[in-house]
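In the current project phase, our protein records have gained a structure token line. A sample record follows, to show the layout:
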Amino acid sequence: MVSPALPRLSNPLFFANIMTVKVLIPTPLQKFTSGQATIDCEAANVGQLIEALEANCPGIKARLCDEEGKPRRFLNFYVNEEDIRFLEGTDTALSAGDEVSIVPAVAGG
């Protein structure tokens, strides 16, 4: 019996660009991560990271992103302490060993 052929990748280096990063999860979102404050995810950029989080922690994306898929207004993402709003947004590239912090904004007077 012949096994079915595997699909060919149009870009064989695609998987080489995916990096393992550490994600710091704020307490209000830890119900999606079974109480874990940090998790490791594989992604090439912040947008892919959000998708990876959703795949592993169903329901978390609705808390992270608005209906258009953009990060929620009062939620900040930092890559190695750099705010992604001042980098490339969700297209911000990730490297192996990066630390991504998800930080709810604090308001008040």
